[in-house]
Give the backbone structure.
Amino acid sequence: MGGARVTPVLELRGLHKHFGRYRVLNGIDLTVDEGKTVALIGGSGSGKSTLLKCANLLEQVTDGEIYFDGEEITDPRVDTDAVRRKFGVVFQSYNLFPHMTALRNVALAPRVVGKRSRAEAEQRARELLARVGLADKADSYPDRMSGGQQQRTAIARALANEPRLLLLDEVTSALDPELVGEVLDLIGELKAQGMTILMATHEMDFCRRAADTVCFLDGGVVAESGPPEQVLGSPSSPRLRQFLSRVTHH
Amino acid sequence: MTHAPGWNDAHHTYFSGHVFRTQTGTIFRGFLIDMKIFLIAEPCVLAIGLLIAVLRTSLSPVLAPVRIGCALYVDIFRGCPTLILLYLIGLGVPALHLHHVTKSVEFWGTVAIVISYSAYVTEVVRSGIQSVHPSQRAAARSLGLSSQQTLRLVVLPQGVRSVVPALLNDLVALTKDVGLISIVGAVAESIERATAYEDYFFNFTPYVIAAILFILVAAPLGRLSDWYTLRTMRRQGWAALA
Ligand SMILES: Nc1ncnc2c1ncn2[C@@H]1O[C@H](COP(=O)(O)OP(=O)(O)O)[C@@H](O)[C@H]1O
Ligand SMILES: [Mg+2]
């Protein structure tokens, strides 16, 4: 211990998000350090998706600050489009663009945002598709791919901007059980390659294996956080114990 | 049926070989004029319809006054029957005798048709834009695309595709309604002849009254559909990406 404190990739300080009178987030404090994987767990409706959407400014925060590599991105003068480019986001329902092939889905950001030539962007997209094991699906449209293939394409798309941080929102929840493994394996590989990840998940086994920190969201705050063996192994609050017994039953 | 008492008269009235021989050329020329008008009007209708639909569905708070203007445009010109609009613009504008402004009924009739049809097409395109799920915008914005890039590359291609059948339907209706211009042309001619012989004064007031009545019926219906769409959008969480 005692080394110089490294600036975290993402830091949320006292984050509040209200929808009208409905207070979803009530003062979230959370830090994601470089190369680490932080897992968000919590009941349905506890605000995991809302937290992730606030993090890359898809939702406007009600109060509190967000720091990205030490820069306050909740500052109103910040160029939000430029900030979002530094995040890669993967959604529960894939959200691939149905009118584009897998290749064009992945090549879109390098072309439009990265201002690369078509040839360069497609070359990069092919590399990324190969990396997620879908080199042969480049010319397929999303509706011709399995859920697992679509989600792996979505991960390739999220990597296209070379993000500093990956936000994963229950990326395996919509998948058939036999397809969950291929997506989790891919995320494990990304982590091993040094990617920084903030993910909402219901996969407790995966949490135990891959997460460095687990945060339990309850009542709009991080009610409990720590290494997975501590949070999942010896939960201190009855709420967390109750939650864990519910999710491990299926 | 061929033994019906009126058959010979009817047969002559509808299928006269003489008229067929002498008039087909004239009619065909008229048809070609209609097609020419159609080919000019259609791109204008699509361009204006697309522009207004995009402005109407914009989420930016700055564009609120523009959105209201677009809603008025649709309420007024979709509510007003095409024929009445043709009389008001196709006959009305030339009757103003403005300097340096053409008095061609064909020209102003085309303008009237374009205004009327673009109001319909606006609503078709708008429904297409709104049929694209907000998660598509979320995905595009997450990649760092600006709102305009998201509209152009993600929302419009999907939205327009989903309303192509409805647009084609409007297109077919347009091919027929350009023919109304020739009726207005004939009316214009007879007014001219009448004014040459006597102090005949053509008055637009009845058309204005009729137009207002029609618009008064259509506007609340438009508001009702706006309210319904907005409610649906709120439930899908659209407001988030203003
Ligand atoms: N755009 C919105 N408007 C109103 N309420 C919302 C909106 N988005 C989410 N919520 C509400 O916020 C709560 C948290 O939702 P969410 O973040 O999706 O939870 P989780 O991902 O943990 O299941 C839910 O009760 C949800 O209904
Ligand atoms: Mg969620």
Remarks:
- Residues 97-162 of chain A form one domain.
- Chain A has nine helices and ten strands.
